[in-house]
Amino acid sequence: MRDHILDTLKNLRKGELKEFKSKLTDIELEEGYNCIHQCDLEKADPVEITDLLIHHYKEHYGVKVTTTVLDAINQRDS
Length: 78
Description:
The protein is an all-alpha fold. The chain contains 4 helices and no strands. The protein has helices at residues 2-10, 14-24, 38-41, 46-72. Helix 1 crosses helix 4 and helix 2 packs across helix 4. The mean pLDDT is 93.
């Protein structure tokens, strides 16, 4: 699952990745989860973002969060 998140993020263009990071701090999360701080995402590349997603949300919920953000930025097919 980690590799799937990473591959998805690597396929985003620079502007799309910037939008993904912005939206990631602005989505509604399930109870018990906290947003990743914007300062942690600012200079993060796809590998670092993937690590943050897995660290904050574990693999299964990390995939769900990634999908939610991709939907929000209209990049679900990436």
